[in-house]
Amino acid sequence: MALFSLAKGNSIIIEKIFPDRFMHVAELNRMAANLRKEGAAVIVTGVKKLIAAPVMASDLRASAALVLAGLAADGT
Question: What does the alpha-carbon distance between residue 60 and residue 36 come to, in Å, rounded to a whole number?
């Protein structure tokens, strides 16, 4: 999801097994990502850049996504 945040256009990610796996959507949005959660899906609209921000991860996968976003963000 972090990498889709920087891609051109829109992406849709659907989670069919663990619906709480999208807990980090709000954290990525704090970094100026453009993610919208709709039920079991997240719609990602790519942005030109992410901005450094303090974030907190809820699980290992969220941690990895936030680390990647942090590495790509301006101001880190």
Answer: 21
Q: Which amino acid, one-letter code, is at 6?
A: L
Q: What is the pLDDT along the chain (76 residues), one digit of tens a residue?
A: 999 999 999 999 999 998 788 999 999 999 999 999 999 999 999 999 999 999 999 899 999 999 999 999 999 7
Residue pair 42/25 in contact (Cβ under 8 Å)? The answer is yes
- 9-40 burial string, b = 16+ CB within 10 Å, else e? eebebeeeeeeebbebbebbbbbbbebebeee
- Give the predicted TM-score (pTM) of the model: 0.91
User: What are the residue boundaries of the structural domains of the chain, listed by start?
Assistant: 4-72
